[in-house]
Amino acid sequence: MFEFFVAPFLEFEFMRRALAGSLALALGATPIGLFLLLRRMSLMGDAMSHAILPGAALGYLAFGLSLGAMTIGGIVAGIIVAMAAGLVARASILKEDASLAAFYLMSLAAGVLIVSLRGRNLDLLHVLFGSVLALDDASLLLIASITTLTLFALALLYRPLVLECFDPGFLRGVSRLSPVAHYGFLILVVLNLVSGFHTLGTLMAVGIMILPAAAARLWATRLPTMIASSVIIALASGAAGLLTSFHADVPAGPAIVLAAGIAYVLSLILAPGGLIGPRLYRRPHLEY
Amino acid sequence: MSEPVIRFRNLTLGYDRHPAVHHLSGEIRPGALLAVVGPNGAGKSTLLKGLVGETLPLQGGFELGIPADEIAYLPQISDIDHSFPVSVFDMVAMGLWRRVGGFGGLRRQDIERVHHTLAKVGLAGFEQRQIGKLSGGQLQRARFARMMLQDCRLLLLDEPFNAIDSRTTDDLLSLIANWHAEGRTVLAVLHDLERVGRYFPECLLIARELIAFGPTAEVLTSANLARARVLAEQFEEDAPVCHRHPDETPV
User: Who contacts B156 (Cβ-Cβ below 8 Å, separation ≥6)?
Assistant: First the structure.
């Protein structure tokens, strides 16, 4: 038991760093993913993660594999695409999903093109799939900072954000915080995607946001429990994925996302809100 | 006579240059209990949206005799996401927004006020229920409770009894009657003319433009209603530019 679960982390520093990184990511990105899910914006998160690519790629083109340049490039590109898509949705007849799809497809193409200008396939792989097993001090610090900022911002924005999710008309009626909640939330999405981009890569960053959130949605009925259980599932997926990667010698990023995927599939089958769950927990009906 | 709560000055609201509310003028006095009536597409909802600033005037405007945060607005029920995990208590407590804002906590007396208000609308014991588990009528009761906690002087209701059964409607109408007795001003968009006649002393009949405004019995005549039906259906893609009241410039 000890050999299997604990020894890899005691023995190897890169495993400890990977664990710290994926735990920090789970703590911040998963609650954001839950709000994306509840706002029916899951696919929007996916689109946004691709939108980050050309910014990060431009940073890479100018400065090589520099953490700062790629991070700032990614954040700027993500925010530009989010705002532009919102603007197009409001000012043209296209809905937000269509306008986002258009922007992110262009972004993805531009991103891959820019990275390949510099020429090394290994770097392209790094950008697309992240490098959770090679996190340096600066990357860890960045991920932890983004998570800290996210948790404080969520605590502060919680009430306006919840209202913005289920009754935006009421929020607009009583206060001017509606755009603050909406755009503040989008900025948090972009920040966490950049954080996920360094660990899991652009293509899979959304995995750790949405899969644990979807699993938790199937178990919990109240929002606070839902947030807590999604974070627990994400933390467990991070550890399980790293251990699988270590013992079975498979890439860590996909292993983490697949671990969260297994949690989702199990929940889908067993949870009260899932497929078989409602039959499993069937109890006699009440008088009234 | 005190200041009117709302004074419409040649107000025109609309979409894509087509007027939905056309050259509306008039005054609504404090404490009025007013039904806004008209056929579908008459601009009733647009009028309420204009009052809360969600739609900007194409021409003219209106003046409020009260601060803007003294308006409580109940849009049509379809605007709510029922599946969102939030409890009845939490949803209704948001009516205290003016006191607690986006970040403040609830004090003990606030919590008691929420419980008290829930009891008043007939939802005692439903505090921890998720809003997704409420029936349409119960959800509307919860929204009325939230509106009561907002404690505003002008209340705007957009088709509050759509798809609501008659018993719930009667309960909610008696709440509206209480607000009227407390001296609040109420504007409600309604379709049920029989109920309008019974509960609402005043009536504003619109069909894109003002048909009649005054005591309900004088407004809801068959001649007025027939005229409203004809006017609401007029819509031409290439209608000429309107030149009524050329002294008013667009806002």
Answer: B48, B51, B52, B71, B72, B73, B74, B187, B188
- Domain at B188, CATH number: 3.40.50.300
In a domain, B72, yes or no: no
Please give the Cα distance from A196 to A256 (Å, whole number). 12
Say whether both B33 and B134 belong to one domain.
no
Q: How many structural domains comprise chain B?
A: 2
Name every chain B residue with its beta carbon within 8 A of the beta carbon of A155: none
Residue of B nearest to A226 (CA): B85
> Are residues B127 and B169 located together in one domain of the fold?
no
Q: How far does the CA of residue B79 sit from the closest CA of chain A (Å)?
A: 7
| Predicted local confidence at residue B81, as pLDDT | 87
- Asked if A70 contacts A59 with a C-beta cutoff of 8 angstroms, the reply is yes
What span, in angstroms and rounded, lies between the C-alpha atoms of B246 and B251? 13
Write out the residue range of the structural domain in which residue B84 sits: 77-152
Structure confidence at residue A36 as a pLDDT band (50, 70, 90):
very high
Instruction: Tell me how far apart the alpha carbons of residues A136 and A150 are, in angstroms, rounded to a whole number.
Output: 21
Shortest distance, CA A19 to any CA of chain B (angstroms): 31
Over chain B (251 residues), the average pLDDT of each successive run of 10 is: 85 83 89 92 89 88 91 86 92 93 90 96 94 92 96 94 91 95 95 91 91 92 87 72 60 38
Instruction: Please indicate whether, in this complex, the C-beta atoms of A166 and B75 are within 8 angstroms of each other.
Output: no
Asked whether the predicted pLDDT for residue A10 surpasses 90, the reply is no
B68 contacts chain A (CB < 8 A): no
The verdict on B133 and B200 lying in the same domain is no
Helix (H, G, I), strand (E, B) or coil at B64: strand
Residue B250 lies in a domain: yes
B5-61 tens-digit pLDDT: 999 998 988 887 778 888 888 899 999 999 999 988 888 999 999 999 888 888 888
A166: chain B residues, CB-CB within 8 Å: 80-81, 84, 86, 91, 131
Nearest Cα to B232, choosing from B45, B40, B15?
Answer: B40
Q: What is the chain B residue with the closest CA to A160?
A: B102
Instruction: Check CB contact under 8 Å for B85 and A163.
Output: no
Query: How much is the ipTM here?
Result: 0.84
Q: What pLDDT sits at residue A23? A: 93
Final residue of a domain: which of B136, B152, B168? B152
In a domain, B193, yes or no: yes
B54 and B103 share one domain = no
Is A160 within 8 Å of B102 when comparing Cβ atoms?
yes
Whether B111 and B211 map to the same domain: the answer is: no
Hey, is the C-beta of B59 within 8 angstroms of any chain A C-beta? no
pLDDT of residue A121: 65
The arithmetic mean of pLDDT across residues A13-34, rounded, is 94
> Could you tell me if residue B71 is inside a domain?
no
| Contact residues, B window 80-99, toward A, CB-based 8 Å cutoff | 80-81, 84-87, 90-91, 94, 97-98
Residue in B closest to A38 by C-alpha? B84
Torsion sign across C-alpha atoms A230, A232, A235, A238: negative
